[in-house]
Design brief:
With 496 residues, the chain is of the alpha+beta class. Helix content is 36%, strand content 24%. It has helices at residues 3-21, 35-42, 47-53, 90-93, 95-103, 152-157, 159-165, 167-188, 230-239, 276-295, 318-325, 330-333, 336-345, 356-367, 421-436, 447-455, 467-475; strands spanning 56-69, 72-78, 83-89, 110-119, 125-136, 193-194, 200-201, 212-216, 221-225, 243-251, 263-272, 299-302, 305-308, 315-317, 376-379, 401-406, 409-416, 460-466. A hairpin with a 5-residue loop joins strand 4 (110-119) and strand 5.
Length: 496
């Protein structure tokens, strides 16, 4: 029998004894304070000053450390806010309670403590225990008591252990919640309306991505988990909600990597009577606001680089970015035949029928994206890779679109929306043809969306911002799995 199995067996025996006593899993203990509240209020008190208050508290949490010293013991409780030390004396709690502490309690148990606050000779805020109750028995031993949980796969698969053992991980997800709140604050202050749109759709659209497919039994119809909320949000703009946003999940049937999870969080927002230039300015303001609100500074340290989200973010066309970050000239990048030879020489997979714009995008993604460390807006995306974007008035081969890159990855994608129903229908037909040729990421033809455009979409600009990637940046996290509470993992031992 393994050591862990023996520990579990012994703990189950203790639980059985508690059951016989009628003391297993009580639910009538109520705490009066959190650890962080007590530290904030009383850490500055002198020992004698604190004794004079005779402050009585009830705290509860998980026992993380224990030091038994005969007739008296110290132990540490951890609640959702932090840790507090407790001091238990046999004389104060009685023989039976102290015996239970010694023989029935284990590291990891959840306990409730009532007592008086005092400070030890070393100045540590402590609860002197008057009453103690075991509230939940932990049947399994905690991992690596003093060093935290370090095994990466275990951290992702059993996030509850990761949160339990690693304060920095708990802090990270508090930051994530603050980021989402700050994004919402920024938009609400600018008269945007928060909405919810369907997760299951009869037609997948709004982005070029491979969807997840499911089946509705009662309706006997195929449904798709949404790859983006874009088309429904623009339907709302048609209906008269001129500023809308949604913070919610998207689903894309793609591979797992440090940048990709098949289920991820996106902020999408749309503003009538605006264009992509105004959204770039707004995005600069938004990221500076969020960083200042959450971190107290616009300067962010990420994987060895210091990035200032408060500084102006330059604009650069995709063609200019390719020339700036590769050895190829503007003439080579702008010639379909020459660029085809370049891609072939670089062994970048490209459809022989690919257009110049598609080849430029392939070269950009393979050789330029990861070099864009400082924030930069990449503009003038080719029309054929931007099926929902408005064509540029001066050069209809490109669109009024931008992607914001920071630390070598795309953070946001926005554009002046295509509101010409005939142009949109033609581009949908082009997407359908690509799907027929085997492109699993191509969109379907959405006839109802065309109908909506025929009623009239005002000049509009829209943007999608990856919340997970923004949190990665603000928390110096190298992998998207670090910032998703329950990331998807490969199948293991019968569990996902």
């Amino acid at each position: 029998m393994s050591e862990d199995n023996e520990i579990v067996r012994l703990r189950r025996e203790k639980l059985e004894l508690l059951r016989r006593r009628g003391e297993a899993y009580p639910n009538d203990f109520r705490r009066t304070a959190l650890a962080s509240e007590l530290h904030e209020k009383f850490d500055a008190f002198e020992k004698s000053e604190l004794e004079a208050t005779a402050e009585q508290v009830a705290v509860a949490g998980r026992m993380m450390l224990r030091r038994v010293m005969g007739k008296a013991s110290f132990f540490t409780l951890q609640d959702g806010s932090g840790r507090i030390q407790c001091y238990m004396r046999r004389e104060a709690v009685g023989e039976q309670a102290y015996d239970a502490f010694n023989h029935l309690w284990d590291i990891g148990d959840i306990v409730g403590i009532e007592g008086r606050l005092f400070k030890t000779n070393k100045g540590e805020l402590t609860v002197e225990v008057a009453n103690a109750r075991l509230l939940t028995k932990s049947l399994r031993p905690l991992p690596e008591k003093f060093h935290g949980l370090t095994d990466t796969e275990t951290r992702y698969r059993q996030r509850y252990l990761d949160l339990m053992m690693n304060e920095d991980v708990r802090h990270l997800f508090r930051v994530r919640a603050a980021v989402t709140a700050a994004l919402r604050e920024f938009l609400l202050a600018r008269d945007f309306l928060e909405v919810e749109t369907p997760m299951m759709q009869t037609i997948h659209g709004g982005a070029t991505a491979r969807p997840f497919v499911t089946h509705h039994n009662a309706l006997d119809m195929e449904l798709y988990l949404r790859v983006a909320p874009e088309l429904n949000l623009k339907r709302l703009v048609v209906g008269g909600f001129e500023r809308v946003f949604e913070i919610n999940r998207n689903f894309r049937n793609e591979g797992l990597s440090t940048r990709h999870n098949p289920e991820f969080t996106m902020l999408e927002f749309y503003q009538a009577y605006a264009d992509y230039r105004e959204l770039m300015e707004m995005t600069e303001e938004m990221l500076a606001y969020v960083s200042e609100r959450v971190l107290g500074s616009t300067k962010v340290s990420y994987q060895g680089d210091v990035i200032d989200l408060g500084a102006p973010m330059p604009r650069m066309t995709m063609a200019q970015a390719i020339v700036a970050h590769t050895q190829y000239s503007a003439d080579e990048v702008g010639d379909a035949v020459e660029l085809g030879r370049i891609l072939e020489g670089l062994n970048i997979g490209s459809d022989p029928r690919a257009s110049l714009g598609q080849m430029q995008m392939a070269l950009f993604e393979a050789y330029v994206e990861d070099k864009l460390i400082e924030p930069v807006f990449i503009t003038a995306h080719p029309t054929e890779v931007s099926p929902l974007s408005r064509r540029n008035d001066e050069d209809p081969s490109v669109t009024d679109r931008f992607e914001l890159f920071i630390a070598g990855r795309e953070i946001a994608n926005g554009f002046s929306e295509l509101n010409d129903p005939e142009d949109q229908a033609a581009r949908f037909h082009s997407q359908v043809a690509r799907k027929a040729d085997g492109d699993h990421e191509a969109m379907q033809f959405d006839a109802d969306y065309i109908t909506a455009l025929e009623y009239g979409l005002p000049p509009t600009a829209g943007e999608g911002l990856g919340v997970d990637r923004l949190v990665m940046l603000l928390t110096n996290s190298p992998s998207i799995r670090d910032v998703i509470l329950f990331p998807h993992m490969k199948h293991k031992d019968g569990n996902g």
